[in-house]
Amino acid sequence: MEQDTTKLYTFLIYSENVPGLLSQITAVFTRRQVNIESLNVCASSTPGAHKYTVTAYCDERMARILTSQVEKRIDVLQAHFYTDEELFINETALFKLSTPAMMKNREVSSLVRSYDARIIEVNSTYSVVEITCFPDVIISLFDQLKKMDCVLQFVRSGRICITKSRVEHLDEWLAVREAKRKATK
Q1: Is residue 173 included in any domain, yes or no?
Q2: Distance from the CA of 165 to the CA of which of 14, 48, 102, 109 falls in 20 to 30 A?
C-alpha cells in the first residue's frame, strides 16, 4: 500500500512586473492538474520585483516539478517551495456578523475578543470583525461563530508569508547576477 505524501506547499515566486505572467504561472499548475488553494500577488521588498505566494496540495516530487516549470517562464526571476515549518505565515479575514444576533447572544462578542479580533464596524444590521493570524485560528473562529448562527459573510485573504531563512534568496541571487554582469563589462 502506497503512503499518501500529499501536503500543503507554499510556492514563493519572484518576477518582474509583466502583464500576463499570472496566467502563465497558474497555467503551470493547471497543466499538471494541481489545484491552487490560495494566491496572493504583491510588490516585494526588492525594488522592481513582484512576489506571488501560491499554495497547493501535492507531493514533494510535484512541488519540485512545478517550481522548475515556473522558473522557466522568461520573466520569473526565482521560484522556491516551502513547507509551513519553514515560513512565518498569516492571513487576514473579515466576518460580517448579525448585530441583532450579537446583541441577543453576548458570547459572540466575548468569543471575538478571546481571539484578539477587532470589531471595525457596528450598525443596527451587521458588525464587521477583522482578524489577522494563522489560518487554522481563523478557521477555528469561523467554525465557532457559525455554530452561534451569526455569520452573514466571511472572507479570507490569501496566505502572506516570509521565510525563516536569515537571508532573502532573491536579493542574494540578484547580487550575484549583478556581479557577473559587471565582471563581463
Answers
A1: no
A2: 48
What's the rounded Cα separation, in Å, for the pair 159 and 145?
A: 22
| Residue 138 DSSP class | H
- How does pLDDT run across 64-121, given as a tens digit for each residue? 999 999 999 989 999 999 999 999 999 999 999 999 999 999 999 999 999 999 999 9
Q: How many domains does the chain have?
A: 2
- Residue 56 to residue 158: CA distance in whole angstroms: 12
Radius of gyration of the chain from its Cα atoms, rounded to whole angstroms: 21
Residue whose C-alpha cell reads 510535484 in the numeric block: 62
Give the pLDDT confidence of 116-165 residue by residue, as tens digits.
Answer: 999 999 999 999 999 999 999 999 999 999 999 999 999 999 899 988 98
* C-alpha cell at position 7: 501536503
Last residue of a domain, one of 60, 82, 104: 82
Q: Does 51 lie in the same domain as 77? A: yes
Neighbouring residues of 51: CB distance < 8 A, sequence distance ≥ 6: 12, 13, 14, 41, 42, 43, 44
pTM of the predicted protein model: 0.84
Q: Which amino acid is at 164?
A: K
Distance CA 40, CA 25 (A): 12
